[in-house]
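Reviewers of the previous submission asked for a worked example of the structure-prediction workflow described in the proposal, so we include one complete record here. The input consisted solely of the amino acid sequence. No template or homolog information was supplied to the procedure at any stage.
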Amino acid sequence: MIRTTPRYLERALSIVIALCIPPLLVMIGVRLAMTMSFVSFEYHRPDFPPDFYGFTLEDRLRYAPYALDYLLNSEAIDFLGDLTFPGGAPLFNNRELRHMRDVKVITEWAYRAALGIGIVLIAASAILWQRGRWHLRAGLRAGGLITTALIGLIILLAFLSWDTFFTAFHEALFEGDSWLFLTSDTLIRLFPEAFWFDAAVFVGAVAAVSAIALIVIAQRWKPERNI
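From that input alone, the workflow returned the following structure tokens.
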């Protein structure tokens, strides 16, 4: 293939691709975890923690979609604040509502960032597809390797010290102790800590499997080197 772009530009675009892949694959896993399919799978696991305050499986399946819907729709916090139990008591207390509002802000920011990263990845890939496929291959392979290494490290840390990992994650994203709740609060009853452990493993597994697929594809793809 005859060179049509400077070598440094092709290398730079290859690095951009490699750096875009890890966060994008993680966000794909996060989006898949934020579905009722995943939540329902968790609830139906035989060893999923029961709610000692009385939520049945049916109750959890009834109330959990509200939390997911709020994070993905454009509604204000009243979407959750107006919800009540059959007896008239609010489904979520003020502390839970504040936390959910914070989570929604982070979720929206993360999805916008993922969209931007995706656009950059597609643009860089399109340029290299036309003018430097060897560097496109290198970028995809490097991105897969970086993702696999990072996910492996994160999952290892999560298994070795889940409490430390869980606490550090929340302290990095939320102010103070706004993410701490009583075991009697609705959010904990719907999404106990075991749920978040499984979600973290699921997100990591999705990213890792996708990354390995990229590595295999890149290894088998032998584009002609530029001259």
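DSSP finds nine helices and no strands in the chain. We consider this example representative of the routine output the project will generate in years two and three.
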